[in-house]
Amino acid sequence: MRFAVRAIGQQGIVSVDVDAADAAAACEEVRTQALRPLSVAPVRSVLPARRNAFPLALFSQELLALLEAGLTLTEAIEALCDKEARSTTRVVLERLLRDLREGQRFSAALARQPAYFPALYVVLMRAAERTSSLPASLARYLEYHGQLDAVRGRVVSALIYPLILLVVGGAVTVFLLGHVVPRFAGIYQGTGRDLPWLSQLLMAWGGFAARHGSLLAIAAAAVLAALIIGGRAWWKSGGVQRFARRLPGIGATLAMIELARLYLALGTLLEGGLPILQAMQLAEGLLSPETLLRYRAAAAAIERGESVSSAFDANGLASPVALRLLRVGERAGRLGEMLGRAARFHDGEIARRIEAFARGFEPLLMAAIGLVVGTIVVLLYLPIFDLAGSLR
């Protein structure tokens, strides 16, 4: 987040813009520039700010390459800081470098910037410090991030074409009803001929739109703004997710996506050396409120001494395949690996479901849009066909 800080220094009172996680961090950053902060306020923008402008995956990939090349951690981050041109990213790296030079652990330096480094990442690096396996933990996080991106990419790809169809079909329909139909209504009013009933309704709308065009435009803009505001509020409150979970087919797929993310996160944390209860606590942020209640009940059962597979099965958190993989992992002492295998198995199932949805939904959507547009066009031209028949 960006803050405007008024501070006093050798040249008097100055204003400084600072990228920081919070106001306290902004003041701390200003003090490092030999300034004494007087006031701090967030910079407001008319555009929505990005939640996290730091490229964490790219940072991890470059850091891993430098560590594997033989550089120390401080040297690697110093090299990344020297080559970075973006101011926001450079500020984050400079803070990391400063904390490391002061003798802090890498995980502690990361934890001081929670806006850019999530808790899962910090805990993985903390576990790597205990075992001196920082490159392995970075590689593990990159695998985790890559699998999440793959699932997200498949979902987005499946939705792009239907959204384009909806936008284009809606634009064509609005153009026909708002521009073409009023023109035809003016033409047909002077013919003195009886129009088919549906065409009369369409022409009545055309006449109304021609007389109250500006009022309709204002009303449409107000409705659109209300839909956007209401949709954002509904999304933030979780209403969209709850509604989607009740839809047949879609709800089961969303539940599978949620479980696959959970298995992947837990597997990554367990392979990083964390105990199961601590890993489960860190993964809570990935779950919906409904699933979180069952998840905490499973954690309580594990704390009482039950096995992970039994606790997950009793609380509906294990699919048939995942349950068998969990049992194998418990017997062989490879629970983290088996959770990762379960996540990859479900990723493949999710890909198949998304592909099947796209194959079935896109033709239905095209047919619906074609039916609406075609009906409007036919109703516009029915009187012309009637007139042509009378001339014969």
Task: Explain how this protein is built.
There is one protein chain. This protein has 392 residues and is mainly alpha-helical. The protein folds into three domains: 2-42; 56-117, no CATH class; 135-392, Type II secretion system (T2SS), domain F (Receptor-associated Protein), CATH 1.20.81. Helices cover 74% and strands 6% of the residues. The protein has a three-stranded antiparallel sheet. A hairpin with a 2-residue loop joins strand 1 (2-9) and strand 2 (12-19). The longest helix has 57 residues, at 335-391. The chain is extended. The N and C termini lie far apart (74 Å).
In brief:
This protein has 392 residues and is mainly alpha-helical. Helix content is 74%, strand content 6%. Residues 45-51 have low confidence and may be disordered.
List the helices and strands and how they pair.
Layout: E1 2-9, E2 12-19, H1 23-31, E3 36-42, H2 56-68, H3 73-83, H4 87-101, H5 106-111, H6 119-131, H7 134-188, H8 197-211, H9 213-236, H10 239-246, H11 250-271, H12 276-282, H13 289-303, H14 308-314, H15 320-332, H16 335-391
Antiparallel strand pairs: 1-2, 1-3
